[in-house]
Fold this protein.
Amino acid sequence: MFRLLIIIFLCNALVLFAQSPLEIWDMSYLTDASSLNVDTVWASDTVFSGFHFRVAEIRYNSVGDPGEVIRIQAFVAAIDGENLPGIVVGHGNGGEGSLMVALSTAMVFQGIALSISGPGCGESEGQSSEISNWARTYPDPRTSWIYQYACSAIRGVTYLTTLSQVNRDFLCVTGASAGGIMAWLVNGVDSRIRLALPIMATGDWLTAYEESTWLRYYIGDSIPSYDPRVQNMINYLDPIQYAETQHGLVFLVTGAQDEFFPLRCVRNHYNRLNPLRSRLLVLANWDHATYYGADPRYSGRYDAFNNSAVVGRKMLQAELAVFMAAKLAGIVPPIPQVSAISMGNSITFDAIVSPGLQDSVFLWTSTDSGWTFQSHPMSSGFWGRFTYTFTPPPGIGLNNLIYFVECFGTGFVLTSVPYLPEDLPLRIRPPVEETFVQEREISLEDRLVEIEIYPNPSPGATQFLLPPSIQRAGFKIEIYDILGRRVFSGANSTYWNGVDSFGSRVSRGLYFARVKTENGRVASGRFLILR
């Protein structure tokens, strides 16, 4: 019996560790444009936010299970110009590609964007994106959905290289949540990538599993970390396995209270990266699934907060600054370095900040195991040194304090690597189903039908001028912010007062309106609110 157990163990070990992670990627096929077999479903010209675009919906070949070819749906938006950056945009788990995402990305980054639908999402073929399919890795990690999702994105990069307008020396990949994981994997294996922008996604999944995060919850509490499926997922598809092979510059943007990938994962993963080729922005009081503090059902229950407007502006500003620096071969300042010394009843923090980040410097601290964070403006000293002396509450010291430094300057927003004690358990918000926010994509069945919005820009109140055919049919109007989050929904009214569904005024910024009639027609528009 003992010999039988040894044989079983050795067989499992051979399956789990027979290859390095890089060996599961068939890059000769994934980068072969001749096998894409691209079909154009439709193509047209449109004007979006004052810019002319050539847009289309396409299908191309990618990989399913070994030996299987699947067709991937994608939307492409190309702004006028030559030698343009090419950007592949992924979606979160359960999402899908959309024309609006492609247009918005191409407009913001002044390039050509490809918004893909991962396998089984939208009209793409393949298995579903249920998180249980992420762990569908045994005995072959190539049967995992997240692997096949990354392959579909690499094939999307290959498609972009066939477009004459695309600068093949400036190819980018980005996405949030599952799309962020995809960005890590693609940048880890595809040498064509110049810039990767993973959002709300990190590696070090073994730590995430051990800390009882949402990653473990949604994969299944009944599956232990030593299960071969989890082991193969970690050994082959955890982004930390590709930390040393990242090709393009990496700019990681994540929340300090992320329920899937908490700060310990952020710290461990980032510390494995090449510091010359990576940058970091940790968003304080931002989690993976926002609990809106204005909603009386949850207010106070989870120390909730609504930080969407602040985070949205900061995230877009920071990504644009890094993108433009990478595009123009400019310098992205290094992240700040911070140290702390405890003296008596106080703690003095000392940050070293590069010249390009010295406009404003803040210390963020958490005295409740990462549940909430508070900011403290730091004082400028000589030679880029910033200091702050903190008097913590009773019982709080460096053994149970979490902190990092956030810096602003020349358009950049960057943070230091978070400090947290090794033996400090993090408080992670519970996975309450009704507050879990899936990534909301704006799907446009009538893809190029637009509505007029007046005034635009608007000080807040907005009037929507709808075609008579839509008004006669009865309609529902939804307002989304630039992150794709729905802020308002109403029926049969062409007026919106600029207040969200919880009664709070929305902040200034770019918004998208989506109108859908009872008979299925869809129209859209975008507008600015300038308060």
About this structure: Residues 308-327 form the longest helix (20 residues). The two ends are 75 Å apart (CA to CA). The chain has three domains: 35-327, 337-421, 449-529. Confidence is low (pLDDT under 50) at residues 1-18, 434-448.
